[in-house]
Amino acid sequence: MENRKSVALIVPSDIVARGLGSILEESGEFHVEEVFHDFSKAAESRLRGMDPDMVVIDPVVLDFKSRREGRNMLLDVCDSIVIALDGPGVTEDVLKLYDGSVSLYDRPSDLTRKLHGALDAKQPEVVSDGGELSAREKEILVCVAKGMLNKEIADKLNLSIYTVITHRKNITRKTGIKTVAGLTVYALLNNLIDMNSL
Q1: Nearest-angstrom CA–CA distance, 56 and 187
Q2: How many domains does the chain have?
């Protein structure tokens, strides 16, 4: 199926990762691009290059203090929907911070229904494809091309991180480019930045 949604799993248990991955693949609606067993710098770097539609993370991969910040940490890495895996050691107040949650005890049909629900809830506003970038979108594109993270862009431009993410999604939709490298080339070709500023 061509329109399968790409998923990255961040799950410390190989057994859980394999089971979850198999269920998603067998549904025919999702494709597991990669499985990470921790949220290391290497995983962050790889996620940045992948830009999956969805990340399913077991919050226990984060230390106890970071669990409440897990969703925000992932916002700096990719613009994906982030789903928490509900299991031992994950509290209800942590689960509420994510775009949705799935349980270790969900049936396959419930799992895919919950994932589709999260995807549908986070559909961005409709913007015409191929439209002209606004001045703010160009400003954000330049920051992206310079390697800035969403949080850095938000701080620099006095915007919320969610506004930056919405602008980035609009930029992607208008240009048809999902990767930072591709957006950098676009910015260079459209004279928004020059090589010396990179």
Answers
A1: 31
A2: 2
Owning domain of residue 163: 135-197
Residues 3 and 30: their CA atoms lie apart, in Å, by: 8
Q: Is residue 129 part of a domain?
A: no
Q: Whole-number mean pLDDT of the chain?
A: 85
| Structure tokens given for 85 | 């895996």
Per the domain annotation, does 10 fall within a domain?
yes
Tell me the average pLDDT across 131-157.
Answer: 89
Look at phi and psi of residue 47 and say left if phi exceeds 0, alpha if psi is from -120 to 50, else beta.
alpha
Q: 106 and 159 share a domain? A: no
Q: Is the pTM of this model over 0.85?
A: no
Residue pair 74/82 in contact by the 8 Å Cβ criterion: yes
User: At a CB cut-off of 8 Å and minimum separation 6, what does 23 contact?
Assistant: 108, 111, 112
Residues 6+ apart with CB under 8 A from 31: 4, 5, 6, 7, 24, 25
Q: Tell whether the model's pLDDT for residue 121 goes beyond 80.
A: no
Looking up residue 186, the CATH number of its domain turns out to be 1.10.10.10
Question: CB-side exposure of 108: number of CA atoms within 13 Å?
Answer: 12
